[in-house]
Design brief:
Layout lengths: L2 E6 L10 H11 E7 L3 H13 L3 E5 L11 H11 L4 E10 L7 H18 L3 E6 L2 H9 L6 E3 L6 H7 L3 E5 L9 H9 L5 E3 L21 H12 L3 H16 L5
The structure holds zinc ion.
Zinc ion (ZN) binds next to loops.
Organism: Cetobacterium ceti
GO molecular function, one term: hydrolase activity, acting on ester bonds
Protein name: TatD DNase family protein
């Protein structure tokens, strides 16, 4: 079974030179990849990619560090785009208290508005949370029917256990880094059927490519690492995480 990259940004300018080749490698090596919007422009680019390439699905939304242009009008356009066939989630949305581009209250307001949008459309969400886990969990509890994925899961095993009844945990290249002890523990303790693989490319390249440009096919290094940590076969990791990704985004067998 082939892997899925559940979170990538191939509309990023770092792929301007060779995007077609990168997508060809997805086509040949992965089940599919999900390109993630982070503002209006990137959501539009995402939609275009999903229309052109079979192997690309997408999400639309405003990342918490990019909410300055979130308006009523933008929200309406998000909704229109979200109704398109291959747009499979609202995201990435959430809270980022590390960069703190906008005050906490503003971030929480826009996070809630996009959760309401997902609720209205009955769609899953892709959550970004950095140095803000407590408030993230608190707000998600206000929306008990919302499901989705906590992308690049940064939390503890305890918090993971609170979330996995309705959220998958997105595991990326950070798992392969030397200081990944906390995340290794999460992967050890949380059942495979709650994990999905991601790259967050062009960022977060896994070992042995750390520091270089990342791309979707490198999810295989994350898959290998999970197999090693859990003491199971790579094939088992591939099979279960790909099924999880399809369930997460409601994507049928292709
Ligand atoms: Zn991302």
């Amino acid at each position: 079974m082939k892997l899925v990259d559940t979170h990538c940004h191939i509309d990023n300018e770092k792929f301007n030179e060779d995007r077609i080749e990168v997508i060809k490698r997805i086509e040949e090596n992965l089940e599919f990849a999900v390109n993630i919007g982070y503002d209006l422009e990137s959501s539009r680019r995402t939609l275009r990619l999903t229309r052109v390439y079979d192997c690309i699905y997408g999400t639309v939304g405003f990342h918490p560090t990019d909410i300055s242009k979130y308006t009523e009008e933008a929200e309406k356009e998000l909704e229109d785009m979200a109704r398109e066939e291959k747009i499979v989630a609202i995201g990435e949305i959430g809270l980022d208290y590390y960069w703190m581009e906008d005050p906490k209250e503003k971030q929480q307001e826009i996070f809630r508005r996009q959760l309401k949008l997902a609720q209205k459309l009955n769609m899953p969400v892709s959550i970004h949370t950095r140095d803000a886990m407590e408030d993230t969990v608190k707000i998600l509890k206000e929306f008990p029917d919302i499901k989705g994925v906590i992308h690049c899961y940064p939390g503890s095993v305890e918090t993971a256990k609170e979330l996995i009844d309705r959220f998958y945990l997105g595991i990326g290249g950070a798992l392969t880094f030397k200081n990944a002890k906390k995340l290794v523990n999460v992967v050890k303790e949380i059942p495979l059927d709650r994990l999905v693989l991601e790259t967050d490319c062009p960022y977060m390249a896994p070992e042995p490519n750390r520091g270089k440009r990342n791309e979707p096919i490198y999810v295989k290094f994350v898959g290998e690492k999970i197999a090693e940590i859990k003491g199971i076969s790579y094939e088992e990791v591939a099979k279960v995480t790909t099924e999880n990704a399809k369930r997460l985004y409601s994507i049928g067998d292709r």
